[in-house]
Amino acid sequence: MLDLLNAWFVSPFDYGFMRRAVVGGLALSLAAPPLGVFLVLRGMSLIGDAMAHAILPGVALGFLLAGFSLPIMSIGGVLFGLMVALLAGAVSKMGGQREDAAMASFFIISLAAGVMLISLGGSSVDLTHVLFGSILAINSTALLLITGISTLIVLTLAVVFRALVVECLDPLFLRGQSRRSGWVHSVFLGLLVLNLTAGFQTLGTLMAVGLMMLPATSARFWSKRLEGLIGIAIVLAMVASTGGLLLSFHLDIPSGPSIILLAGFGYLFSALFGRYHSLAAKLRRKTTPLAVEQGS
Amino acid sequence: MSQRSLSRLQLHNLHLAQARRTVLEHIEGNFKPGAITALIGANGAGKSTLIQAIMGELRPISGEVVCTVAKERRAWLPQQLALDLTFPMSVEELVMTGSWPSHGALTGYCAGHYRKGREIMARLGISHLAHRPLGELSGGQRQRALIGRTLMQEAELLLLDEPFSNVDSETVDILIRILRQMADDGATIIVVLHDMDHLRRLADEVLMLNGGHGRWVAPNALTHQHAPAQVVPFTMGGRHAGSA
Lengths: 296, 244
Hints:
The complex is a heterodimer. By secondary structure, chain A is an all-alpha fold. Chain A has helices at 2-10, 16-41, 45-54, 56-66, 70-95, 99-121, 124-132, 140-169, 171-177, 182-219, 226-251, 255-273, 279-283, 290-295. Chain A is globular and about 60 Å long. By secondary structure, chain B is α/β, with parallel strands linked by helices. Chain B folds into two domains: 1-69 and 156-244, P-loop containing nucleotide triphosphate hydrolases (Rossmann fold, 3-Layer(aba) Sandwich); 84-155, no CATH class. In chain B, helix 3 runs parallel beside helix 6, helix 5 (111-123) crosses helix 6 and helix 6 (139-152) packs parallel to helix 7. The longest helix of chain B has 16 residues, at 169-184. Chain B is globular, with a radius of gyration of 18 Å. The two termini of chain B are 27 Å apart. Chain A: It is found in: Cell membrane; Membrane. Chain A: Keywords: Membrane, Transmembrane, Transmembrane helix, Transport. Chain A: This is Metal ABC transporter permease.
């Protein structure tokens, strides 16, 4: 029994690439889910997806200029992501179009531009690498980048947490309090872009969103409190990233998709059996007696 | 002169428009500390527009709003709340956000803040709901929690847009009492009202908006015209504001 556990859960980490992959995955699992929780709460779940596409041309440009250098590609990704976010904001302010409509237009342009750039400069192998990542191939530099960005995100979130909460709950109240309330939104978008950049080398630009959104959407079925949502989402992400890696190691399947599919399984399970709003919760719902209600 | 310097909020020859259509013209006003002003008028008379202008959300075409109250001491409870009720937050946490503007975005709450929050909830009769999520509250309970936030904020200027609609009578009684206490403590309060009974119980002064103009009237002048507790649509038949 112990041997089996050892063979399944410990010995894979004898390999350096697995150790780096699991550390990278855990770092991302700490930083991405809280952002996802806030996106879900702000009704902006799809913005994460759009931003993930938006960083692609920057990554591609970095790739064209410096080859497969993760720091350069990341910087390109951050710059391009922020630019698209700003442009989308500007277009929606200027034309009265909703920000999500502008964002939707920009992200599809970005995706096409990014794929075009990579195809012009590299092979289809490079393209799949950027689009779908390769967590098993991250080296120490990439690992430092990922953990550094994750640390920065967690620390910044801790600092702006309350402002972010107030902005989600009652934007009018925040706007009433400070003329500079717009910075909260900008800081949040900046963190989002940073996180997706850190995620693209492990999971790829397209699937980096998965580790951000799936644990967050799953957590909605387990908690009604903000702290609970964030805590549960982080745990789910950690289980998914580590479990996905192990599955990919043992079953010889691609690591990125197995991490996200495991998170996806967690989502389906939560939707069926979660504590709140799930199918099971609907079936067992009972009314609270009046006496209990008043006594509480 | 002394009255001018006393007043916290003044409106000078205010001209307001929404989507290039003039809503209000020549609005003059002088709102004193400790006074509760009722803002009345038919639907579309410009009550919400005026409130937006006072809060600085709408730039006047001409004229000016002079307000000496610091931004973090102004509170506005609009009729259509931007509040996201699905947000996982309890009543106590909502009330506590009122302290956020004054002591900064980045520092935590101390025991004193929590004590004050609990006192406020007790005054509003919502202590037992402290840990209840906002989405599970009734309209009245929610309104009390929001007033709790403005109390926490120590608001000096409070604008309420129809605070008593969709609210139970017990809440109305509590809110009227609390608003009066806030005014006695020196707050300037402006309330959009539709109900004559509420106006009689609450208002010290009345600003009536009609036909794009404002007219200051004494509350008893209005209440004497109508039977008490009657809901008055404020169409003010017979008066042509254009001739004013």
